[in-house]
């Protein structure tokens, strides 16, 4: 039973109990005391009545562990040190203690005092550890509630602790139930600790003056990987995936360098990397704020160019081409002054796109070529391929199809092996655009479908291959399909769920295809098709887009569960999560989980959009 018996006093048993072990069978007539024990344990963990354990569950620690998760050490402390002595008192005093504990447990969780029951339990557990185990227990707090052994070694190993000794201590912490293995579909091992344990560990780090060394070790470990961005234009797929599963550590490192080491220029690269990982997720807004904040840190940072370029990627609503041009010119100058060649490649490519947006095609071509020449000099085949794909799209817009095909011919097998999903999807889209412009419709469709199969549903660039398939449909005379796809992508762009910065030549092709397709439909059919298309979720749109044929668009109803629909209706009425929790008699955290699942199913991002969806479907019903 983990900690049971370590330093506990067992001869302090309550009247009416048999000796030899903690929480033996109680006197069945003493229902008040049994009730008091249950109240005390429940109050200690701030649980509601539905989680209050029975006396038998308190007696059997394993059952209680199932209910209360990672709190076995605290439960055993209550059982061995609190309960036996308190059972000698009257049940009124015990209830008063339970209520007092409950108030502290449910009070301000941001600043737990040392008299908090959980801190008392952790103090007791901490006192039973060896010096090595205490060091590991406190240092893993910098990793948050979930972590892997590689990260533990990175923040714990020093001149006094080897890799082997750190892993041994980690195993001991797991054996004593202070950390638990997280269930995972992969073979990789992950551990989990409670938020209380994290807060406690941080407090111990500060007491032992180990807070800064532990965080600096985390930053140094992440920088050992991120530093590659100072030598290459873009990270490979494997490198991106390595950071993607450690994005929480990256966020911790970024906040630490911002708050405590403002003169550390590594902050800018780490922030740009974190923002890029958020770019194709539902955390785009946080990424934008992160870049904007980092730009205020130091105007002379050698990595300022990367922040400016990433800021451009996030500023999809910025429709001022001159402002974009000025910002990218500043990025080039910053990279040139810092002599950061990899940053220069990224900045030159972005500057070329900015010039194309203001129709200065000569300047755009000059900077595209300069970025590719620099990538060649750096012997960076991967970055050269990425630059050539952007250049090819520029050439397609100018009607130079053969030159575009020549540009992408530099793509090697290494690119396919190392590219991340977004880069591979973009490459297939470029190939599809070249085939489409050259009149090879079947090949264009194949590349566009392949691109769409790689993009995730919430990627802001997902409209491009779908619009490519709309042009394929128009070329085949599938008017209804073309109109539906273009209406759906326009809805995504209008609602801010997809990129709004579209090349002029691409918009012109789409407008022409839409006009020609609408001319083939009667007014009622066209209106109905567009209305139905606008109601598609991103995933429904993808499913429809990859189909072939020109069937009438009848989206499948979104499968909300009964409870999810209940929550959605209350959200539409304007109720807060707390009000919904009280109305439906469920936990506030459960309401939050339901809303996240609803957003994912419907492909929406706000309560306003959910209210509109409920209104539309109620009217339809």
UniProtKB/TrEMBL annotation:
Residue span of region Disordered: 1-28
Family matches, as PROSITE patterns: HTH_LUXR_1 (PS00622), HTH_LUXR_2 (PS50043)
Parts forming coiled coils: none
Gene Ontology terms describing biological process: regulation of DNA-templated transcription
Keywords from the UniProt entry: DNA-binding, Transcription, Transcription regulation
MF terms in GO: DNA binding
Entries under SMART domains matching the protein: HTH_LUXR (SM00421)
Pfam family, one: GerE
Domain HTH luxR-type: 553-618
Top-level taxon of origin: Bacteria
InterPro entries (UniProt xref): Sig_transdc_resp-reg_C-effctor, TPR-like_helical_dom_sf, Tscrpt_reg_LuxR_C, WH-like_DNA-bd_sf
Protein name (Swiss-Prot/TrEMBL): HTH luxR-type domain-containing protein
The organism of origin for this protein: Streptomyces triticirhizae
